[in-house]
Amino acid sequence: MASSTSITVEVDGVSYTDDVEPRLLLVQYLRERLGKTGTVIGCDTTNCGACTVHLDGASVKSCTMFAVQADGHQVTTIEGMAQDGKLAPLQEAFHQCHALQCGFCTPGMIMQSASLLKENPHPTETEIREGLEGNLCRCTGYQNIVAAVKSVADGVEYGDSGLSVSESLTDGETAGVK
Ligand code: FES
Ligand code: FES
Q1: CATH number for position 154
Q2: Of 30, 75, 83, 128, which residue is 20 to 30 A from 17 by alpha carbon distance?
Q3: Is 113 part of any domain?
Q4: Which residues fall within 8 angstroms of residue 97, CB to CB, at 6 or more apart?
Q5: Is 51 touching ligand 1 by the criterion CB < 6 Å?
Q6: Which atom of ligand 1 is least distant from the CA of 52?
Q7: Which domain-ending residue is among 80, 99, 116?
Q8: Mean pLDDT, residues 36-48
Q9: How far is the CA of 73 from the centre of ligand 1 (A)?
Q10: Which residues line ligand 2 (CB under 6 A)?
Q11: Total domain count for the chain?
């Protein structure tokens, strides 16, 4: 059996200490050890972006790094985006703009969009498309995805849709992506 390494990682505001094999990918750790199934695996070639999470506030593809590399760092997944049971503005915008079809790409799209808006709060449509070029939507729903991101950048307020977090995009099972 391969040797294990102890890691301590803060994920969605909770600190976890676990023994992991050095070869365990971060996305596998999140899904299989922590049950964070909102972060999904859409490819084995590092090109779909479905597994995108934030590491110390910056977006990373969690299939491209090992869990041990997250030791001592903060990770935010789609499941940590809602606050106090209320969807984050991007989550609300994706819902209201119908920016998802099967929903498989949605967690990664939202995490990457959040990074994009943090770096550039007022992107043009072209800049949004360029910022999301590492994320693939196999349902080809790009038009509404871009519209949702642009609406948040433009300060559109959707109010509270009334969706609870358990009914929302943050729930992989509800979104059909478990
Ligand atoms: S699962 Fe990570 S890029 Fe596709
Ligand atoms: S909504 Fe189906 S892959 Fe994007």
Answers
A1: 1.10.150.120
A2: 83
A3: yes
A4: 144, 147, 148, 151
A5: yes
A6: 2
A7: 80
A8: 97
A9: 20
A10: 100-105, 137-139, 141
A11: 2
Structure tokens at 12: 């969605």
Q: Over 60: is that where the pLDDT of 41 sits? A: yes
Please give the distance, rounded to the nearest whole angstrom, from the Cα atom of residue 72 to the centre of ligand 2: 33
- Which structural domain range is residue 141 located in? 89-165
Check whether residue 57 and residue 104 sit in a common domain: no
Predicted TM-score (pTM) of the model is 0.90
Q: Ligand 1: which atom is nearest the Cα of residue 47? A: 3
